[in-house]
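Note to self: user wants both folds in one dump. Writing first protein now.
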Amino acid sequence: MNGDGSTLNSNPMSPKARISNRTANGLKFNSLFECGNLRKAIWVRQHEYDLILNSDVNCNHHHQWFYFEVSNMTPGVPYRFNVINCEKPNSQFNYGMQPVMYSIKEAMQGRPSWKRSGTKICYYRNHFSRSSAATGGQKGKSYFTLSFSITFQDEDDMCYLAYHYPYTYTMLQAHLWKLESNLKELNNIYYKRQTLCQTLGGNSCTLLTITSNPLTLDSDGIQQFSKFCLF
């Protein structure tokens, strides 16, 4: 049972689990946005939450990256977050790395930026075991927990927490559009944008060709296009 009296699934790793609703004096969680991947938030005790991540798209494992939104916080109070289904046996979080946080209130005040945040950070093996479906048939492998504390500074804020600086598909398309707009003004650069294929998620995978325009149309100039790099 969680902090607001609603019943939680007896198996915290169940795919049927849902993100918990806001408690009377607790945080509100959300990950229904691009790249958000929080499956469930469990109220452990006052100001502490266990978090369970969704797996990567089109698979049943690969839990490490996280990206979610929190609101309804009390400023000046340290909140403890435990991401309990990480898979890597060790992490840079044990060697000084911090999660990143983006504050909507600070952005509205003219300071839009992701910042390294968090104290009392540790990464360790826990008592949860991964299923054979998630490990390719090998049973008994353990999950790992990333635990960290965040103290929010502003009341009525909305903050985003992530493993590292997010770079979404929408951001990629915006950067490509800006690049294309800038290159149109340069006659000495050849730029072509094509669709190489479709991803499993149905998005276009872009192929870019960027090189110098040939100064002449003879064999020496055209030969510039015979050397290319695909990445």
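First done. Writing the second protein, which came from a different request thread.
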Amino acid sequence: MVQMGPGMMSQSQEVCGECDGKGEIIPPSARCKACKGKRTTKEKKVIEIMVDKGCPSDYRKVFYGEGDHEPGKEPGDIVIQVEEKEHATFQRHGRDLTMRLDIDVCEALCGLKRSVKTLDNRNLVISTTPGEVIKQADIKMVKGEGMPTHKDPFNKGKLIVLFNITYPDKIDPATAKKLYALLPKPNLPAVPKDSEEVHLEIFDGEATWGGEKTTDTDDYEESAGHPGMQGGPQCKQM
């Protein structure tokens, strides 16, 4: 109780500094040397966890009773949640794995043979047959080379391959003529005689996307009424 003024008293509560609000004081002679009367000590403990093949990215493992222990309370639990790290080559989608494979235009037209290292350090050979053409953004798959199923590791998903074709910046004109002679000719309409030749340039990134809107307004919309009818409707004078 604190007197604030004549006839005015103030009452406040605070935690006891001797017992820390526990309502019990342990004499110094009876205090434990390890905890110094606090009844708890800090301890380091190593916990091992086994991550099964194919476990989901949000997999959780609970160690019951291995958390903090406080006098008069039940021991807490330790909850460990698995977080997947990003991989430079593969992206996981459940049981399936996806990857992007960059190939050049020669491989796309004439065939390819590439080696891909798996997550378990095996080397897979991805190849196409002669005459098979890979187009931009084509998607192929290899069954049984995805992620193992959780609790059924011998049942694996698919490895999905997304092809990205890279083209050279330019080629020799003589080579271009040879390629044109070898490749199938496109069926294109004839160019009209009155056509105009234009110069094709690299796009500068500036454009009016979505169309240009006018900044001018119509005089009719601005005025309250039709010209000659200012002030609203008027009566004919006799």
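Dump finished. Worth passing along: The longest strand covers residues 152-166.
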